[in-house]
Design a protein that fits this description.
Structural class of chain B: mainly alpha
Number of strands of chain A: 0
Number of helices of chain A: 3
Helix content of chain B: over 70%
Structural class of chain A: mainly alpha
Oligomer: heterodimer
Helix content of chain A: 55-70%
Distance between the termini of chain A: 45 Å
Strand order of the largest sheet of chain B: 1-2
Largest sheet of chain B: 2 strands, antiparallel
Shape of chain B: globular
Amino acid sequence: MEFVIAFAIGVLGASGVWLILRPRTYQVVMGLALLSYGVNLFIFGMGRLRVNAPPVLPGEDAIDPAAFTDPLPQALVLTAIVISFATTALFLVVLIASRGLTGTDHVDGREGER
Amino acid sequence: MFDTLLLWPVILPLAGAALAAALHAFPAVQRQVALTTMVLTFGASLFLVDAVMEGAILTKAFGGWMPPFGIVFVADRFSAAMVVISSLLALCALVFAMGDLRQRQVRSGFYPLFLGLMIGVNGAFLTGDIFNLYVWFEVMLIATLGLITLDRTRAQIDGAIKYAVLNLFSTILFLMAVGLLYGATGTLNMADLAVVLPQTEPSAALTLTAMMFLLAFGIKAGFFPMFFWLPASYHTASIIVSAVFAGLLTKVGVYALFRVFTLLFEVDNGTLKPLIAVIAAGTMLFGVFGAAIQWDVRRILSFHIISQIGYIMLGLAVATPLALAGAVFYIIHHIVVKANLFFVAGAIHRATGSFDLRKSGGLMKASPLLAVLFAIPALSLAGIPPLSGFWAKFMVVDASFQGEAAWLAAVALFVGLLTIFSMSKIWIEAFWKEHPRAVRARPVPAVMLVPIAALGIITLAIGFNPEPLVAFSNLAAESMGDRTQLIGAFYGGEHTAGVTP
């Protein structure tokens, strides 16, 4: 399982970086989104990967921490997802405004020389 | 009251932003709301600095969850001073905005966004939790993106894209570093990290974390070689926005860097010190060289932000208590002076109709008062005694000589010379030279001159009487460099035994 997660993070990170370096705004925003997915998975993995262990601790009784997975990374990932959703949406608005004002989806607002 | 002192600098702008957004249809009321909010925030920050002046470190844990489990706010002298100076700057910017802001910009949401920026800035200065810092950075990013594109022109959208991509990338890096840090230590509270990290085995993960923090905050702060977004975006925004960005945004990155590299990681050991030294020297040199070939006042000043960030980094590179004190002094001096120069650029634009130095001139005769008001921050930036910049430069250069980094001191002095060159270029072109088209300069409204004069007076006051601020910087650097103080504020002393400062 560790290998699959690590591989997924690697693929997301690599394709994200490649897309950020592309000249089209849509590619850049997809690249940023992929990168933040990669980081979210990464944070998730930092809480150690556990199968069949709930993150929510039940009420008053004394519990065995070994039976539960770390809930904090999940909370962090949730926060990060919400924030990156908001920033991506906002960034898309800027990109659409740029497309409307310049008539091109090049990041520089004009086509480069070919 | 005393218990909640820490929260007011964040809560007040938050309430003000909500109120201003709700009153979107009434620009005049929005302005009153914004001004009142910032006056109150400034007052609250003065209470805060008064409370920490004696060396106490205020803490506030949210929801009753004690650290390291809950999110906490912390204020020591350094963060309280940053809150005071940024609130003061925001207040000056709002007064300046009374003369410069256009109706269209108010309708684009200037006031709610501006107050939103202040939420993020004050939150970032006060938080004691590293993941929470990420949240404040994002709050700032969202507000700044709105502020840059206030006029919705092509240039501004272009600047905003560059700003957003690089800053989103840096927050992603920051987030990854936070995740790695959590994986290595199992905590995110800064005081708890300061306890845990010295007991953790040095590992590749921790080195990588330190490098990623350096890179992420470096992009935010505008270091060599990651500063390119700054001169590409700052000059496109309207001048009030540029002034506040110039004063505050890069400084938040610098502040975060100082916190991380005094509290969590040591600059002194290993390869970090020469690396930061090279970054500092590169930032100083490339910033000032970039400024030398520009003709737009705003572009010249944007490049100078970068060069000055290099001086502040010099303090971190040397990392002695004296150097840190110099850096604290430098940050405070730089926020005041740089924002003031942008305000002056706005006044030049108002008087001559252009930001391009080649198309302006004749201000010496037309507006001698403005000439004097420009001369104060300009000479201070270049480090001419007895203005505040002289003492700031003197402290960091003196520290680098004592810290056996004489080559850094030499670079700093050389860059100081080139700064004078840039400032005299603005002086000669905008003030001495006749106006190329013999147009009469328009008068600058008093509300624009008042904040320039107020910041100029602060510069003079620091310059002629530097002793209180030097003493304060020394104390702030001492409590920043001594991690046992912060840890003691949380755990009441029993945890501090095993920690070496």
